[in-house]
User: What shape does this take?
Amino acid sequence: MKLHPALNDTLRGHDIRTAAPAPFASRKVFLGMLAASAILLLAYRIVLMWLLPLADTTEARYGEIARLTVTHGFWLMPHIDATTPFFAKPPLSTWASAGAMALFGINEFAARLPALLATLIAVRTAMAFAAAYHIRKTWLVIPILASCPLFFISAGAVMTDAIQMSVVMAALYCAWRAIAPLAEGESAERRTRRHWRIGFWVMVGIGALCKGLADWALIGMPLIAYALVERRPLALLRQLMDGTGIALCIALFLPWYLAAEHAYPGFLNYFIVGEHFSRFLVPGWKGDRYGIAHMQPLGTIWLFWSAAILPWLGVFLMQLWQLLRKRADAVEPLERFLWCATLMPLLFFTFAHNIIWTYGLTSIVPFAVLAARWLENASSAGTRIAGGGILALTIAAAGCYQLIQTNVSGNSDRDLVRAFHQIEDNDIPLAYRIKPAYSAHFYTRDNLLDESDAGRHLPADVAPFAVERNELIGNAPVYFHGTRYSLIKPH
Assistant: This one.
């Protein structure tokens, strides 16, 4: 079956070495569509950051940890509640959210602001990679990144992933600038290369404060793969080695790890062995103190990845196929480096059971650079479809705001707590007859009574209102009815 030539061009794209740019008029419209999409998506993300509540469990949990850091002074070791230290992650992302809360108040936007800023740093890094890849319009990476669902969500969510992505990509960019082969006629001062080596090791040290050995793995795997593909691993290793950089790296992370273990014995064993090895190598790992192990079939990361870059999945598959068909000497060094950075995390997590949907985030930035190269050289039909499709997707996403608001609010206690505070003073505790979720602690500022394990209910003069499961409210007066729980006045 023969396809229409325009559609055929769209599906297979043009080789980047021979493609002719789209006609000027079409290109101008296409650029306008992508620019509009980027601006609208940024504005929409900020609106969602401002209006949406912290939902259970992830956002509310990390938001509550940051709130406790500010209110209780848990700056050395973040706590998941007033008495329980949180060993699962180093403190960098918590410090960032807690610092924003200290400056701007305890609210959703402050908790999410560091993720947005970290994402903007990652965008800038992507543009720097694009410039090194000789992409004329480096800003093309912005609408590509913004329209990837995983990147868009992570850009304004209270999670550790956005800061991790920013640190990993900054480390990889510094590494590339330190080891990049020089083109004919180019020269590089030894001092400049050394600055990039030191920057690389500084990012490695910061990574240890973000997600620990996981960051080191996400930095190291692409570099090792690239060194092997280039067939000069020892030479590249020597290019990255720097005594001053390594000393700065150790000085950045080691004092906190030693202080944390001294103040909380057992932290290093749980965090290094449990979170970095048992979590990924032991199916259904039971040692998770703060949640549940996410057991998935092997290879699930590729389903997560497909959803993470959904609008650009066809471009990914097409470009990967073209890469496999190219002669080795036809692939530019930076193109190999970007593919290593894209594929190595995905290949690693292919063989892990305990994974979640965010684990492909660091692969999105290098992929966006590869996609931007394709986009800049795509056929006229391809550029029109990409520009119009992303703009349509942006408008559709904005049109789904009410649905998003309803779903997120249904998984948070914010509206319930607000309803309670309209009836009672803020200093009156709210009784929970079910185990309070993290959002309950965050929005009540921990001014609640947990009756879930008490075996009896408190008298009305102590707790005039209570939170109960919807199916157990009986004929009690209901003052707020949510998707999970209701606010009642017990008889």
